[in-house]
Specification:
Elements lengths: L15 H15 L1 H7 L4 H22 L8 H15 L6 H12 L5 H15 L6 H23 L9 H5 L5 H19 L1 H6 L7 H4 L1
Amino acid sequence: MLQLSKLAPMKPPASLEESYELCRQITAVHSKTFYLGTQLMPEAKRKAIWAIYVWCRHTDELVDGPMAESTTFETLDRWEEHLESLFAGSAIDDVDVALVDTLSKFPINIQPFRDMIAGQRMDLYRSRYDTFEELELYCYRVAGTVGLMSMAVMGVDSYASGAAWEREKQSYTPTKEAIALGIANQLTNILRDVGEDARRGRIYLPKDELA
């Protein structure tokens, strides 16, 4: 994973083939079922999905991984700066090479990546949610965004006009369904991890639902 305190590479990044292989290995180890699903995709698309998955996993680990206690708003600011460099075509870490290549091949919008980082920021400044609407926004940012990232790889432009999150709440489209699937997965994770999250000082279940 990128060492955020040192944005200059210590060695040349991996080759493109090595980078995609590293992304494949990370996906296969940490999300076995998801990885099996990618085997049904054409080669170019499954490799792109692996690269996106690894970025999302690294982003999540900033606030939910072994080093989460050391993550600050400044850490996430630096991570977002790193994101901007990826979209500008600059690879620093080994896995960056695959993502930069993916971004050059598919019309992927940067906004869902920014939104996901905004979701990680929410985990830094709040540990309770008053309403389901607040929780839904959090779930969109940390999980619904994955659907938007993937849709461009699948050939659907989720950002044809306006902000997908606001626009797609009003109509049933493939984009809305992609967001809904991500939110549903995150809600399932929240219900599964209620005890673990509570021990870490986070209670995601909305107060108005518990009253």
